[in-house]
Design brief:
Blueprint lengths: L3 H25 L8 H8 L10 H16 L18 H24 L10 H10 L11 H19 L13 H23 L4 E4 L18 E4 L6 H25 L1 H6 L3 H13 L21 H24 L2
Antiparallel strand pairs: 1-2
Length: 329
């Protein structure tokens, strides 16, 4: 039978470990601060070489991926030990960032680095893009971090080749059609998140799946009216995924404003892009509550999901307008 002093010592050690886990969990749950595109340019500036199209955008993508891996606590989505395994909000934030990273890496490989549909793909991007699509929850054989670091290495090689006249296979084409293709992906992502956030309050919605096309069909029949509501346990996950998505997207759009400046100015669309960034910045306001509140919308308590949905919906509407501006001659 254990003596009382020994039991007390064990209890003290266990208590200290629990406190340490709680403190580390709180510290690791802090959302990374936004970084400045201007500072990023100053950090990369070379006295003998001017910036070339694509450098700022690629460098921003690199910094976003580095933030995923190097923020306090590192990458937590695949953690299997405390406190990482106990965290909930940070993995959702990471997934939101990762979705935007994957979409942009695909656009970079598929469109922005190629002059036309029949041109060859960049060798570095053919490595980076699939590495970023690796399972985000794998902790060993291989670990997710090791795959993403290989993607980083390939992205840095592509970035270095952009300004190297000897590496002519590394190109970036700042064209309106390339930008529109990527913005179409952004539009669908934000539209989906907006719907999920709005569904934090249950509502009855009419089925609009086939609206606007008399000849449209679908695989299986669905009711004319549907009850839409995000499960209670997933409300905070959707909120933080939207927050991560917005964080990554506002950095990428700031970079686009630099690399696509001439295209946007010609279309008189630069101010539209800046307004989108302004809406996304609103999603990064500090959450002055220990939990994501889910009031009824018009009730006494706030509903943080609806506030987030408002910002994202406005950003999405502005993106639709921006794509229309870019399509005009």
């Amino acid at each position: 039978m254990l003596s009382k002093p020994l039991v007390g010592s064990i209890g003290g050690v266990v208590g200290a470990i629990l406190v340490l886990i709680l403190v580390l969990g709180w510290y690791w749950s802090g959302m990374p601060e936004p970084f400045s595109t201007k500072d990023l340019i100053e950090w990369d500036k070379r006295s003998d070489k001017p910036l070339v199209p694509g450098e700022v955008t690629t460098l921003t993508l690199i910094r976003v991926v580095e933030t995923l891996l190097e923020k306090p606590g590192g990458y937590t989505s695949n953690d299997w030990m405390p406190p990482g395994v106990l965290l909930d909000n940070m993995p959702s934030w990471e997934f939101g960032v990762l979705v935007q990273v994957r979409d942009f890496a695909r656009a970079l490989r598929k469109d922005m680095s190629r002059s036309q549909s029949q041109s060859t793909e960049n060798n570095h991007l053919t490595v980076a893009e699939p590495k970023l699509h690796f399972d985000h929850n794998s902790w060993v054989f291989p670990a997710t971090e090791s795959e993403y670091r290989q993607a980083l290495k390939a992205l840095k090689a592509y970035h270095q080749g952009l300004s190297d006249a000897a590496q002519r296979e590394s190109q970036f084409y700042a064209r309106a059609d390339n930008l529109r293709v990527w913005l179409a992906d952004v539009e669908t992502r934000l539209g989906s998140l907006s719907q999920q956030l709005s569904a934090s309050v249950g509502r009855t919605a009419l089925n609009m799946d086939l609206a606007g096309d008399q000849g449209a069909v679908q695989s299986t029949e669905t009711p004319e009216q549907m009850e839409i509501q995000t499960p209670w346990l997933e409300i905070d996950n959707v909120f933080y995924e939207a927050r991560g998505t917005s964080w990554a997207l506002m950095h990428l759009l700031n970079a686009i404003a630099v690399d696509f400046k001439s295209v946007l100015e010609k279309k008189n669309a630069l101010v539209s892009l800046k307004q989108i960034v302004r809406e996304l910045e609103g999603t990064q306001q500090p959450l002055r509550s220990p939990i994501v509140l889910n009031g009824s919308g018009m009730g006494i308590l706030a509903n943080h999901s609806l506030v987030m949905a408002s910002y994202i919906s406005r950003a999405n509407a502005a993106i639709i307008d921006l794509r229309e501006l870019l399509a005009q001659g």
